[in-house]
Amino acid sequence: MRDIWTTPDSFSFLGADRCEPSTSALRASGARAAFFGAPVDTQGFTQRPGTTLGPKACREASVQYAGAATMEHGIDVRQYWGLVDCGDVSIAGPVAYKIHQLIEKTMEAILAAGAIPIMCGGDHSIPIPGVRALARQTGARIGYLHIDSHLDTAESLGGEKDTMASPITRIVEVEGVDPRNVVIFGARGLGNPPPLVQKARKLGVRVIPMAEINRRGVEESIEDALDTIWSGTDLVYISLDNDAIDPSCAPGTTAPEPGGLTSRELLQMAQAVGRRGVAVLDIAELSPNFDPSGITARLDCTWVAYVLSAYATSIEAGELPGPGRSRRRPNRRR
Q: What angle do CA 198, 201, 206 make, to 5 degrees?
């Protein structure tokens, strides 16, 4: 069995051409953005399984949006970014750390080709290998935005350290990541016991909970989060956990929490993120078993398209360089 394989599904993400996940193949394709699946499950939540089906669901939902030209920007994402689909990382047996190694390998190949990796999980352990790969490949100062209802500051889960419960704890350990440039956006609900709240404070990361977002307003809160991750950094990594979104808008997730971001607010955030540029995007905790209508996967596809469209608009306006080039740190944008 090959370590990395091109998905046998009949669909690719947004109808993109398929491409082998190697730097040489990606360069030859001219890709500036590359989608790949990371169907890893480290959580053991037997009552709500299904995140390994996330990449497949995202591809199937994206058929409706092939080309993905947003009305607001008028840019065909697939064409502008030379978008390709690199399939899924895969290995025989449910060995999470080996899949994490393959995620790093795939991420580094895409980055070395000068493209933006767009990774679809899988559970929320995927930013751990993702940030490690970005740091190792670029040697940059990295800002990290964790859009999530949960703090994810556990030291370990079931004796394992690199799990969906601990991405924040692991990411602040990565060379090039300063905790002051790490933001957890949208935390709320019953899944954040006091020890995890205390751990977030101890780690020194910024938490912008839903209560604060509701009080200050979503626009101001988003800009605050982006100012924080971009302060003194070169590149940013954006990670979206579907449980950050209210279950009324995104029911297909592992650990839904009432009172989250609406789809409208998420797309507002996508445009704000894109206007400043992004090095890596990932989407986690898409569990299509709990969403027969497919609206969660459709929202995920739209999130990606809006980020890339807004980014392209800023490039075309001369406000940002493209991916794989030296980045200036953007000023606050309204």
A: 135
